[in-house]
């Protein structure tokens, strides 16, 4: 079990505590959800439970934490790690091997287990997580959802008595999310204490035993799942919806003709079977969702539509005219799932200037840049370093940069992953605004809440070949 008693923690060089006077427990066989707006202290709470605060991040610690009845004062980080398993929001941060099989085996090899033991552990873990078909795959070829499953499998293979999941549903499709909910129930039945920190709430209704809502570093509300049904709680603390309609099957299919037309697209990764063969489709103006299970090629299709990857064969037409790959690259914008990969300048306003100057060299004016920042609620952050922004602010910045280039095709890959209710609504409003401006917007998302708010039609993967119109 895990028990926190009057815990206050302050990061180095900070005057204000990140969390204050936190007391709660998670008993064996119990699952507890921690939620709240971005910056409320969830991540710090996760680090306190797994020992990274204060053992790794240092800082000032007050209070006491008991793990399986042992006080934190008597535990080293190494000892804590044998009790507490953590799956971080970005699973790449905890990978050490190049392929899935080796990743799951890695820790057990270091523990000196026999080859036969390791083989049994890897196979059992793969079956449990439904990843037997990707055991030989390179880590870098996996979808984000597949990476999440591998990270969970690697941690569970070590049999921790306490499991911490940080935004575990952020990269998972709804079916995989249901599998994760089933897995948590299974872990509870085996008397494992589970702490879940997540913004997405709907999938946990029949899973968690208690809910902690954090605000400004404190536990502002707690109770069973029903407290999330109160509208004032959702509004006051910037929470996501506790129930979400699945509109994937009811969204209209794509039109036969549209602003963007893709004809006879064929593509395969190097030394891999064909992912797409002779497929044709059209995108109208408005917001189109690309829907499919983890690993069906959604991000690959986005790279093809924006010219970042080369088709084996096929053509893209914009307004009825064929456009070569290099020109497609200039007339499109892709917002990656990891925003850090697209932020390279020393200030927010410089990011906008670079984006604006790509297509319009010599036409970058400070007044126009500030107007763009104001439109997206970023003007007050103009001189801030992009990497110092919150997750929601970074997401708004990269979207603003994409729209500053005035693209014909605007594609967003999981734009609301890991965002709270307020930031999710801001992103939804930005997407709708781009659509209203006549841009063909494509959203790759597993976020059922976002789908229901902004999407007009759906491109469902996998796609079967059909004759081009």
From TrEMBL:
Keyword check for ATP-binding: yes
Entry keyword Nucleotide-binding: yes
Cellular compartments per GO CC: ATP-binding cassette (ABC) transporter complex
All copies of domain ABC transporter, residue ranges: 2-241, 260-468
Pfam families (alphabetical): ABC_tran
UniProt keyword list: ATP-binding, Cell membrane, Membrane, Nucleotide-binding, Repeat, Translocase, Transport
Entry's localization field: Cell membrane
Membrane topology summary: Peripheral membrane protein
Superkingdom in the source lineage: Bacteria
Molecular function terms from GO: ATP binding; ATP hydrolysis activity; ATPase-coupled transmembrane transporter activity
Role description: Probably part of an ABC transporter complex. Responsible for energy coupling to the transport system.
PANTHER family: ABC TRANSPORTER ATP-BINDING COMPONENT, HEAVY METAL TRANSPORTER
Family the UniProt entry places it in: Belongs to the ABC transporter superfamily.
Protein name: Energy-coupling factor transport system ATP-binding protein
Species for this entry: Desulfocicer vacuolatum DSM 3385
